[in-house]
């Protein structure tokens, strides 16, 4: 347990039985009454922002979170099996922790997972991933206006928009945060 005055931005707390990350800490000293903290927390599971008013000596629980690199092995229903790179221990985590970036994961890729009390609470895919195009429509002659895009399917079955010069068999770089084409990889 720690005092409210020891909370820093980025800490992960157990607040009202839920895990939250601290996004803002404001100290207020009104002319009348005691000083207090106005804190903003983001709920890790729901993403909802919660504001709290804490007395300076109020007790809060700062959680010990371990963040490591893991290797993504394979998908198993609604879960993904990952492996610790040092101990080779395997365990499964909910696919939903990755959000929309989960569709771009390839077997053998390194991912970052945060664990608190043996429970995975956050997961992050790499910001960029290289994928091979398995199917794309052929470019139509005359359709060369600037910024022309066509649909293409990647090796893991994701359909994205790519420039018309991209062909089947090309490797491309995709931003996993937005799902957009970045560049062709040589």
From TrEMBL:
<comment type="pathway">
    <text>Protein biosynthesis; polypeptide chain elongation.</text>
</comment>
<keyword id="KW-0963">Cytoplasm</keyword>
<dbReference type="InterPro" id="IPR008991">
    <property type="entry name" value="Translation_prot_SH3-like_sf"/>
</dbReference>
<comment type="similarity">
    <text>Belongs to the elongation factor P family.</text>
</comment>
<dbReference type="InterPro" id="IPR020599">
    <property type="entry name" value="Transl_elong_fac_P/YeiP"/>
</dbReference>
<dbReference type="Pfam" id="PF09285">
    <property type="entry name" value="Elong-fact-P_C"/>
</dbReference>
<dbReference type="InterPro" id="IPR001059">
    <property type="entry name" value="Transl_elong_P/YeiP_cen"/>
</dbReference>
<protein>
    <recommendedName>
        <fullName>Elongation factor P</fullName>
    </recommendedName>
</protein>
<dbReference type="InterPro" id="IPR011768">
    <property type="entry name" value="Transl_elongation_fac_P"/>
</dbReference>
<keyword id="KW-0251">Elongation factor</keyword>
<dbReference type="InterPro" id="IPR014722">
    <property type="entry name" value="Rib_uL2_dom2"/>
</dbReference>
<dbReference type="GO" id="GO:0003746">
    <property type="term" value="F:translation elongation factor activity"/>
</dbReference>
<dbReference type="InterPro" id="IPR013185">
    <property type="entry name" value="Transl_elong_KOW-like"/>
</dbReference>
<feature type="domain" description="Elongation factor P C-terminal">
    <location>
        <begin position="129"/>
        <end position="184"/>
    </location>
</feature>
<comment type="function">
    <text>Involved in peptide bond synthesis. Stimulates efficient translation and peptide-bond synthesis on native or reconstituted 70S ribosomes in vitro. Probably functions indirectly by altering the affinity of the ribosome for aminoacyl-tRNA, thus increasing their reactivity as acceptors for peptidyl transferase.</text>
</comment>
<dbReference type="GO" id="GO:0005829">
    <property type="term" value="C:cytosol"/>
</dbReference>
<keyword id="KW-0648">Protein biosynthesis</keyword>
<feature type="domain" description="Translation elongation factor P/YeiP central">
    <location>
        <begin position="67"/>
        <end position="121"/>
    </location>
</feature>
<dbReference type="GO" id="GO:0043043">
    <property type="term" value="P:peptide biosynthetic process"/>
</dbReference>
<dbReference type="Pfam" id="PF08207">
    <property type="entry name" value="EFP_N"/>
</dbReference>
<dbReference type="InterPro" id="IPR012340">
    <property type="entry name" value="NA-bd_OB-fold"/>
</dbReference>
<dbReference type="Pfam" id="PF01132">
    <property type="entry name" value="EFP"/>
</dbReference>
<dbReference type="InterPro" id="IPR013852">
    <property type="entry name" value="Transl_elong_P/YeiP_CS"/>
</dbReference>
<dbReference type="InterPro" id="IPR015365">
    <property type="entry name" value="Elong-fact-P_C"/>
</dbReference>
